[in-house]
Design a protein that fits this description.
Keywords: Membrane, Transmembrane, Transmembrane helix. The chain is an all-alpha fold. The protein contains three helices and no strands.
């Protein structure tokens, strides 16, 4: 037996089971929520239906304040509300004028048809009275 080296330094080549370390995936910093401030200002200036742009502007300012204060969850909540009100304001600003134009065109077409029918009716009556004389 070879005793030229101390036994304490000898590490046997047995496999040791190590505790599995948890897998950590770093995704970077959490995405900062958008405050939609420019969109809200545009909707406020455009003066849309029910002043939804002004409500969106209020929530956008709250979202920006919460983002600056570091409260990301509240900023995300206010940002979501601002986006919803901005969507409603934008849709209202685009759909309501289009609906108004469609109603005006429909009314003009209906009135022109009514006027044409009236002209036809009165011209028929006048031609009938001319034959009686």
């Amino acid at each position: 037996m070879d005793t030229s080296y101390p036994r304490e330094d000898y590490v046997p080549a047995t496999s040791r089971k190590r505790d599995p370390s948890p897998t950590v995936i770093t995704m970077g910093s959490a995405a900062v929520p958008r405050d939609h401030l420019i969109w809200s200002v545009f909707n406020t200036i455009y003066m849309n239906f029910c002043c939804l742009g002004f409500v969106a502007l209020a929530f956008s300012v709250k979202a920006r304040d919460r983002k600056v204060a570091g409260d990301v969850e509240a900023a995300r909540h206010f940002s979501s509300k601002a986006r919803c009100y901005n969507v409603l304001a934008t849709v209202g600003s685009l759909v309501l004028p289009a609906l108004l134009v469609a109603l005006v065109i429909t009314g003009v077409l209906h009135l022109s048809k009514l006027a044409q029918d009236s002209i036809d009716f009165f011209s028929y009556q006048l031609s009938m009275s001319d034959d009686d004389d």
